[in-house]
Amino acid sequence: MHKPLLSRFKELPLKDRLVQGGVAALQAICGASIAYGLAQAIHAEQPFWAAITAIAVTQPNYTDTVNLSRDQFIGAMIGAIFGFFGATLGAGHYIGYVATVMAVIVICWGLNVGSAARLGAITATIVMLVPLDGPVWSIALSRLLEVVLGTLCATLVSWLFSRAERRWFSKS
After folding, report:
1. What is the C-alpha to C-alpha distance for residues 1 and 134, in angstroms, rounded to an integer?
2. pTM of this prediction?
3. DSSP states of 81-140
4. HSE, side-chain direction, 13 A CA sphere, residue 3
5. How far apart (Å, rounded) are the C-alpha atoms in residues 62 and 60?
6. What is d(CA 85, CA 75) in angstroms, rounded to the nearest whole number?
7. pLDDT tens profile 114-152
8. In the 8-state DSSP scheme, what is residue 11?
9. CB atoms near residue 127 (< 10 Å)
């Protein structure tokens, strides 16, 4: 039977785990830095969300990063839409917040993207509970833009790292 990637990493000697950890850290910080810089360049409301997203979706291999980025985008899209409506219709009411988060999770599962449910719930929570000035639609759109930047940057960096790794090991 095929062992999960993280199980295989745990079996490596300490030196190899530290090297893998160093590469993972470099990959995450590259994606986060690019995402944060781009978000600042376009004057995003809170560019740190782009950096956080890039770190959150960065995985040891490209395919896993792509899959988690897709889930993050779907979750953020659903969470931003429902967070917008929840904030508009139930602003300041805990029951409105609870109903919105529950709806996001149920909708994600209903659309067969249960893996995006927690990410959508987090986005809805940010839209509804993080105090910001401005219209709700702007807040929801800003969160979505920052998430998209983070996922795109993490995916690009992961792809570049995977290419470099293939070249490195093909020469050995």
Report:
1. 54
2. 0.82
3. HHHHHHHHHHTT-HHHHHHHHHHHHHHHHHTT-GGGHHHHHHHHHHHHHS--SS-HHHHH
4. 7
5. 7
6. 15
7. 989 998 999 999 889 887 778 888 888 888 999 999 999
8. T
9. 28
